[in-house]
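Our consortium's second objective concerns turning raw sequence data into structural hypotheses that experimental partners can test. To show how far this objective has progressed, the report includes one record in full. It was chosen at random from the queue rather than selected for favorable results. The single chain below, 401 residues long, was entered without modification.
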Amino acid sequence: MKKTIVRALSTAALLSTVFAGTALADTYKVQKGDTLSKIALKYHTSVKDIKTANGLKSDFLSVNQMLKITVASKMTQASQTTTYTVVKGDALIKIANRFHVTLAELQQWNKLNNTIIHVGQVLKVSAPKQTTTTPKPATTPAKPQTTTASSGVYTVKSGDYLGKIAGKHSTSVTNLKSLNKLKSDMIYVGQKLKVPATKAPVPSTKPTTAKPPVTITTPATTVKDVTDYIVKSGDTLGKIALNYKLTITDLKTLNKLTSDNIYVGQKLKVPGTKTEPTVNTDLSTKMIASAKKLIGIPYVWGGSTLSGFDCSGFIYYVANQAGMEIGRYSAEGFYDRTYYVNTPKPGDIVFFENTYKKGISHLGIYLGNNQFIHANDDGVMISNLQSAYYQTHFESFKRFY
């Protein structure tokens, strides 16, 4: 991680020299927590374009680094942002969530039979333009449309996308696109959209009866009581479903969702009592004891023996020493083989993101009292989660299946 900071600072020094005698159309100062993807999304451009414009050979950024941004008009941006180039760490579901489309739509537009993608692959991230033929004049008078007469107008704000707007007005993305004659999902701030007007509830003369508790049967659990969950930044349906021991299909059924799109602040129904996987106390105790014996062993990239460890090789070695038969995976591989936990116990795994690369990139073993043991550039050591660096890059606590 120290090497990463040095490389980022070197890049910043080079860019400052390049920019010294150049008149820029627009520049952006990197803020804490920024990534190239986040900046590209903000300016409706691509990571590739930003890297090309600034001569970057990696995704590393440093705070206060100045970047050259090519800014197009909002209308041009909306029409041009139709493809995305896959970068290291991407997954099809991550790209779908980033562009507010469904996994099925991405597969359909790109003629994919599965979810496998590769670095450098160019994906369509909005519906391809359709060629239309001019309809012949109708021989009979068309029936008047009721949607336009009963529609209102909504002005697009920062952070909006069609799925979010459709949810606010109790309609579907398809209906919203049809009402506004949109050929893609791209919208821009300040755009005026027609939306269905709110209908007044029709009084019912039928006697009302109390509805029975919602019950959903899944292979793992039966849900009789539900509570509300507020969607947070970084959430996906898969992540929430896994946290509450549901399938994505059950979660969508419970909330009457027709797509996988969710947005920050959205309220979802989830099982009333959240259960976490049971702690294997014996395994946790053995892992911690084994890990502490390795303190001081040097860092070796890809290492998983007593000659040296990297972060994932350290977890692999310790888990197997404790009696758990598990393969040699990367940090991301271990992340996919663990459950989320809100109340960590000693022996749980703590994950970090965006350290030397984008996404899940570091992990260690939680010891309790905000301490964890891991292999970093200084070798196997104990660190504090309250330090500024680890607070910034903390992602989650998880527990082995």
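The partners drew two points from this record. The longest helix spans residues 2-19. DSSP finds 15 helices and 18 strands in the chain. Both points have been shared with the crystallography group to help prioritize constructs.
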